[in-house]
Design goal:
Chain lengths: ~450, ~300
């Protein structure tokens, strides 16, 4: 009996000890916890934040920055962040945040508005273009994050594969059909090469929605997920079916990677580290950051890419105005409502997104720079001739309807995309399933409009 | 306990309430810290998850701080959800295939074959089978992944190129789970078979019963309670199996191997619908309870 009692007490002591470990490292001082994502092939953010920590701690004695990494895909990061954010005790003070998640967190009161601090930060006025400032704007008009990155999307293609297939280089597709024709030609004339690759399965999460589906939908005439005039979500319609039909075509005609690869979480690494360098992939529909995989800052540099890889805008469905389409998103540094040290926390955001650190991030990740001074720095476009092209795509770009319900809508899109990828549903059936599921996702049939 | 009751009660003076109350306090008091901890860390979360199954609670967004009681809405949605029904069917296939048929039969066969073998043989076979069992789920999944992957061992040995995890995901996860879980059934049956009187089996042999008849008419009836207990345990284990499938196929491709625990995880932690996910968990619990009831009933029928 004594032994059991002792055991209980020991356990009690151990459990009681768990809660208070973190804050004891810096007695008397303040600690700010920063949550961020890292991956073996994606160390750039960690590098930038480690630099920022050093600079910040040197300038702010008494404040410690605690960097907490989340290893894995963006999807894994979203889950971890959402779980940590459930209680003030576990919520990080500052976090790297995808802009499409911002409004859901604003609605829950998890994010602190930054307007007051931004007003006193000269860089905000001078270095951030107005369009970029909107990246993390809440439904209430307040700003909830300072942009670390922004992006556009387009087509990447292998020039040697194109030459072998007898296709023109440089390639400038005008319609979806041009893209499909090029893919069909590659399949026919260059056996062993995957003609076209895109993200289209649930495992790729938001990439499937944005790089995949939305790049198609917003290229159809009037295609949109959200009807701004009526303030309602659009339930399917012909645009939706057409976008899915494109995906259906590339998989049914076997112009795409094999199913096992389409469902592989490491598809991006396969495309950029294996297939493109080996000349085994013709075209990919992907983000502006893709070239980062080949630059000297990459974990597997491929210097020949500048001569081998070309890039083109994703055309609209029938070549209708404005001729090309792109989607833009990005990540911000955001502050938790729960942090007791708001002033210190904002100071860290300002250090992390200063010119030097912002440059480190943009050069490493290949994301487009949100700051004017970074964009103008020669180091930013050095080793990356594609930067100007993708920056200019801002002229035709669209933003996601990043309302609170968007993440749930996105999940339904991924469902539809995967069903078409595997062939479990036809584009029509997948569109109908989306239309059925939409009211639940957005909180009622009155928030949906049929097309 | 025996040490405590052996003490003369008069030594500490008779408190009000009599010896029975003191007896309760004697075991309850030392247990109290554990009970409190269990209540906080086990009962608390269980009750909470039952409660949120009836709310629209989410992990992010306004419903995460301001969730509302929605009655049976989650359950109504659940039974009209084709993905849930699909996952339920796959769970059934997985439990029957890998536990009831696979682990159970293979465990029994290995236990039967081991009877009367030398110590060396038994040690080696036991060692190999149990090694698969003690291996962490993720490690087992990694082994099977490298075995079934396109450039994996199986394809290399067969000299073919086949995406097993894509073309036959359910077969892959069922095989992996049989491989991993057979040790448990084998141990249960080894113990049960050692209780079968050897003279009874010998007598049947003398009377002219062949090995199959001896198995069906002598051995199996004698170990029937172990069979039922084993079936119940492995069914419950397999019903809740998550890690192995998640690591091997992630429930895919599409939803081709998405059993109910994986569907529950996806809804709760991928799409942040924790209320809906808890409703699925609750239904899974009821299904587990139903299975147990059936098995318990069968045991009772056998006894009658």
């Amino acid at each position: 009996m004594m032994r059991r009692l002792a055991g209980s007490l020991l356990l009690l002591a151990a459990v009681a000890g768990c809660g208070s470990g973190a804050s004891q490292e810096n007695p008397g001082g303040k600690e700010l916890e920063v949550l961020y994502r890292v991956d073996v092939t994606w160390p750039h953010l960690e590098k930038m934040l480690a630099d920022a920590k050093k600079q910040y701690e040197a300038a702010h004695p008494g404040v410690t920055i605690k960097l907490t990494p989340v290893q894995g895909t963006p999807e894994a990061y979203y889950t971890k962040l959402a779980l940590l954010n459930r209680s003030p005790g576990s919520a990080p003070d500052l976090y790297y945040h995808d802009t499409f998640q911002v409004n859901a967190d604003v609605a829950a009161g998890k994010l602190a508005p930054l307007d007051e601090h931004l007003a006193a930060w000269p860089d905000w006025q001078t270095q951030f273009p107005d369009s970029v400032k909107q990246a993390a704007r809440g439904g209430d008009g307040k700003i909830y994050g300072v942009p670390i990155s922004t992006d556009t999307r387009g087509l990447w293609y292998h020039k040697e594969v194109f030459t072998k297939a007898g296709l023109p280089v440089p390639w400038e597709p005008k319609t979806w059909n041009d893209v499909l024709t090029a893919a069909r030609t590659i399949k026919q004339r260059v056996p062993g090469v995957i003609p076209f690759s895109m993200y289209s399965t649930k495992i790729h999460g938001e990439a499937t929605t944005m790089q995949g589906f939305e790049m198609l939908l917003y290229g159809t005439p009037g295609g949109t997920l959200y009807d701004d005039a009526q303030d309602k979500w659009v339930a399917g319609g012909k645009n939706f079916t057409d976008a899915l039909s494109f995906v259906n075509t590339i998989y049914r005609e076997e112009l795409a990677p094999r199913q096992a690869d389409a469902h592989n979480a490491k598809l991006a690494d396969k495309m950029n580290f294996e297939w493109f360098p080996a000349g085994e992939l013709g075209i990919s529909l992907d983000g502006a950051w893709t070239a980062a995989a080949w630059k000297p800052t990459s974990t597997k540099p491929w210097p020949q890419w500048k001569d081998t890889i070309g890039w083109a805008a994703m055309p609209t469905q029938n070549g209708q105005e404005p001729g090309a389409v792109s989607m833009s998103g990005g990540w911000v540094m955001a502050m938790s409502t729960y942090t007791p040290h708001k002033k210190e926390a904002f100071d860290f955001i300002a250090v992390a997104t200063n010119k030097e650190n912002s440059l480190t991030y943009s050069v490493g990740t290949g994301d487009l720079a949100p700051r004017k001074d970074v964009a103008a720095d020669p180091a930013y476009s050095a080793d990356n001739p594609s930067v100007k092209f993708f920056t200019d795509l801002a002229a035709v770009t669209h933003y996601r309807p990043a309302y609170e319900a968007y993440p749930k809508v996105s999940a339904q899109i991924q469902e539809a995309m995967e069903a078409v990828t595997t062939g479990a549903r036809t584009p029509e059936e997948a569109t109908a399933a989306y239309a059925r599921a939409l009211p639940t996702a957005v909180g009622g049939a009155d928030r949906v409009v049929a097309r | 306990m025996t040490v405590a009751t052996a003490r003369p009660p008069a030594a500490t003076g008779a408190p009000p309430g009599g010896p029975s109350r003191r007896g309760v306090l004697r075991w309850l008091l030392p247990l109290a810290p554990s009970l409190v901890l269990l209540a906080i860390f086990l009962a608390g979360p269980i009750l909470w998850s039952v409660y949120i199954a009836f709310t629209n609670e989410t992990l992010t967004g306004s419903a995460s701080v301001n969730s509302q009681f929605v009655g049976f809405a989650n359950f109504i949605r659940l039974f009209g959800d084709p993905n849930f029904l699909n996952s339920f069917l796959l769970t059934f296939v997985f439990v029957i295939g890998s536990a009831v048929i696979g682990q159970n039969t293979l465990g029994l066969v290995i236990a039967l074959l081991q009877r009367g073998r030398g110590r060396a043989t038994r040690s080696v076979v036991n060692g190999v089978v149990i090694a698969a069992w003690v291996m962490p789920e993720i490690v087992a999944a990694a082994c099977w992944f490298s075995f079934l992957a396109e450039d994996g061992t199986l394809n290399t040995v067969l000299g073919i190129s086949q995406e097993w995890l894509y073309t036959a995901p359910m077969v892959a996860v069922i095989l992996a789970n049989i491989w991993r879980g057979t040790a448990f059934s084998m141990l249960v049956y080894s113990a049960a078979l050692s209780e079968v009187p050897a003279d009874l089996v010998e007598a049947a042999a003398v009377d002219g019963a062949g090995p199959v008849r001896r198995l069906v008419h002598i051995t199996l009836p004698l170990i029937r309670r172990s069979i039922m207990a084993n079936l119940m345990l492995i069914t419950l284990q397999t019903l809740a199996s998550f890690g192995l499938i998640y690591a091997l196929t992630g429930g895919g491709p599409g939803t081709a191997s998405q059993t109910t625990p994986l569907y529950m995880y996806e809804q709760a932690f991928r799409y942040f619908e924790i209320g809906y996910g808890s409703a699925i968990a609750l239904v899974l619990l009821v299904i587990g309870a139903l299975f147990s009831l059936v098995y318990l009933r069968l045991i009772k029928v056998e006894d009658a």
